[in-house]
Amino acid sequence: MIRPSYRPDIEGLRCIAVVSVVLFHAGYSAFPAGFIGVDIFFVISGFLITSGIYKSIQQGNFSAVDFFNRRFWRIQPLLIVLMIVTVLFEYWRATPADLIKFAASLKDLTLFKSNQYFASLDFGYFADDTSIMPLLHTWSLSIEWQWYFLLPFLLVILAKNFGKRDWQWLLFVGLIATAYLGLRSSDVDDNIRYYSFTLRCFALLAGALVATVDVKTILHRLPPPICEVLSFIFLGLLIYIGTIEKTTPEYPNFFTLWVVLLTSFLIVLGSAEHKTLAWKILSFKPFVFIGMISYSLYIWHWPIFAYARYTQIQVTGWEFAVLIAISVAVATVSYKFIENPLRKLHKKVPLIATLMLLVAVPALMAYHFDRRAVKYQGYPERNPNYAIQNEWQVPHNAKFGICQDPGKITLETYQQCSIGDNKVSHTVLLIGDSWGDHFRELVHVILNDAGLAGVQLSRGNMMPLKDTYQIDKRSNSEVTQIAGMDDKKRIINHIFLDISTQKYEYVIFGNNARYYGANKRNESSFNTVYNDNFKGTLEEIFIYSLKDTIEFIINNGAIPVFIVGVQTHPIGKYEQCGFNVKNCSFEGTIMHNPDELAWRNVLMSAQQQYPQIIIMDLYELICPDNSCSALVDGYPIYSTGSHITAYASHRLGEMYLEKYGNPFINNNSTEASK
Fold first, then answer.
1. Which of 87-96, 121-130, 386-395, 639-648 has the lowest average pLDDT?
2. Structure-model confidence comparison of residues 42 and 477, the more confident one
């Protein structure tokens, strides 16, 4: 395959791309849309790869074997080093749950489909949960590989069956079609849309089309002053887009289209004999150097930031500068001693040996690592603090998977959702969102002490309120929002049918209710609540629905019980407390958190109206004297941002009995509300 002529201005474009991405990943506020750098990379890749293949096909000497051998030795060696480094770090530092997730992402990376793995997660690219995933950035490399596997065969077929002008038109039609899909895919889940090859490949096709067009003929018709002005404007606009806020909804979007067009035009104008000011800026030696190490910098900067956050380093101020400097230094060494020397081995190693060494062996090892990580539950024995946590946490999550859809519970699974004394019939119902799951063991301890039994019927991100529709605003897709709302409505209807027919003594709410509209400011509310019987503000609808729900439960012979007091840990990811205990404790926020206070005020008001209500307050157990601990018995309390482990839930149940007694024996709401 013929290599395209060296273009220093393209190295400068690579510099813009990688610097934008690095600053965005570092959280630098001046580049809130720095992720567009990936689209710049896609256009450049489409142009360069197609240029080489196109010229080789024209001269009749294209070799697929040579093409793939070059690509494997260009990309895989550094990627394999990244895999080795991250495996070692994850095994040393990651929690069992995070190690299992990492192993799954590693396996899919070796199969060139990590974009599909990240698309399958419950949270999107821009969510906080992704900030500590060391292989997240490899989604774009998987899309590149999927492009490489398709492009040469597509170009060969086009060249053999169509004339030059015809197949250029076909590429153009393909570009328009994929761009239309990417820009009009509002009914596609946000995650799938962002990571989708189909919806992102129009950037690659744009570069491919530029590579096949007779650029010199086009430029010959443009006077140098016009090229000068256009190139400078296009470069300025490209950088400006990276500074625009609120570009993320339904991405790829029209911002993506502008980035793709501007990058394509800059590549075209950079081919002109007259070297414009923009060309000279892009060809500035320091920019060219960053462009040359851009692949290494892209590979290493993200895990450096991710592991800094994982070890609770805040990427701000001087830490930001230090991590940037470390990333550039590591990338420079990586480029000089790994990336650049090893890429030349494509001339010495045959393709079969390349496939075995760079593809098959890493894939088999990653597959084996993934299987063992799952089988041995993330190797909790690596750290004593995780052994007991893991013993409780894994079966706990498995039960939640069964019990989170009440409408699909069978007689067999119903027993697996049971809590309390298994020798008596069920007279207690535990409902709620994911907090209903993490309170399971706490409720089990208290019910067992009272000689009662119950069943857990939970659903993530849903507060069971009678006759309500709840829409998760975190999804930008209206179709996804409506589907989620309909699913919640179905489950809510099933729960209240169950309450009216089973005659429970107690209905316990395990909810992070701060997220459903208790606070009129709605700063933390990401759920919009609607009620067919009442119209008003979100706060008013929430209060009306809550009181209507309480009345319904009381009228059906049960006592409503609400569990409150679990604080959200300010660090946000603290399973690491087993490794870094000193950073785990934090100051209590109950008196300074308006969302928490609003929810408590709503409950207190409801209790004045309905004295039967029991409020179980855990705050003093975790935060005595407003000093909150993230450990219980020396083991981490938290399992995610606001969820507690099953072990902590069990111990808090025992601690609650010791401090307050059993609310289901005393049946005294005043005592239980302390």
1. 386-395
2. 42
Q: Which amino acid is at 577?
A: C
User: Above pLDDT 90, what percent of the chain?
Assistant: 46
Buried b or exposed e, range 81-114, using 16+ CB within 10 angstroms: bbbeebbebbbebbbbbbbbbbbbbbbbbbbbbb
Pair 514, 596: CB distance under 8 Å? yes
DSSP state of 213: S
Please confirm whether the linkage preceding 252 is cis (ω < 30° from 0).
yes
Contact 419, 444 (CB under 8 A): yes
Spatial separation of the C-alpha atoms in residues 452 and 128, rounded to whole Å: 40
Rounded CA gap, 202 and 182, in Å? 8
**Residue (of 621, 636, 549, 551) closest to 590 by Cα position:** 621
Helices 197-212, 254-269: crossing angle, 10 deg rounding: 20
When mean pLDDT is compared over 371-375, 475-479, 571-575, the highest value belongs to 371-375
Element (H, E) at 57: helix 37-59
Q: Are 621 and 652 in contact (CB under 8 A)?
A: yes
In Å, how far are 400, 514, 673 from 603, measured between CA atoms?
A: 26, 11, 10
- Quote the tokens at residue 129: 């949960």
Give tens-digit pLDDT for 420-437: 988 888 899 999 888 888
State the sign of the Cα–Cα–Cα–Cα dihedral 654, 656, 661, 662.
Answer: negative
C-alpha 188/C-alpha 194 separation (Å) is 10
Which tokens is 152 given? 């040469």
Rounded Cα distance between 402 and 435, Å, is 15
Three-state secondary-structure class, residue 457:
strand
Region 312-320: mean pLDDT is 73
Residue in 528, 557, 537, 402 with CA at minimum distance from that of residue 465: 528
pLDDT at 518: 55
> What average pLDDT does the structure give for the chain?
84
Q: Where do the H-state alpha helices sit in 358-470?
A: 361-375, 384-403, 411-416, 434-438, 440-450
CB 111 within 8 A of CB 135: no
Residue 669 pLDDT class (50, 70, 90 cuts): very low
For 625, residues 6+ apart whose C-beta sits below 8 A from its C-beta are none
Give me 402's structure tokens: 């069964």
Hey, what are 434's tokens? Answer: 């994911």
**Of residues 270, 355, 283, 302, the one with CA closest to residue 71:** 355
**Range from 21-35, 485-499, 563-577, 602-616 carrying the lowest mean pLDDT:** 563-577
Q: Measured between alpha carbons, how far is 393 from 568 in angstroms, rounded to an integer?
A: 19
CA nearest neighbour of 605 among 496, 538, 518, 527: 518
| Mean pLDDT across 240-257 | 87
Tell me the one-letter amino acid at 505: E
Beta carbons within 8 Å of 160's beta carbon, 6+ residues apart: none
Whose CA is closest to 474, among 538, 545, 525? 525
User: Angle at Cα 223 formed by Cα 221 and Cα 225, nearest 5°?
Assistant: 155
Enter the pTM of the model: 0.72
Question: Which residues have C-beta within 8 Å of that of residue 549, sequence separation ≥ 6?
Answer: 464, 465, 466, 560
Statement: residue 523 has pLDDT above 70: no
Q: Is the dihedral of CA 107, 109, 112, 118 positive or negative?
A: positive
| Span 136-184, pLDDT tens digits | 999 999 999 999 999 999 998 888 888 777 878 888 898 999 888 888 7
Which among 287, 331, 289, 261 has a CA at the least distance from the CA of 40? Answer: 261
Are 650 and 584 contacting, i.e. CB atoms less than 8 angstroms apart?
no
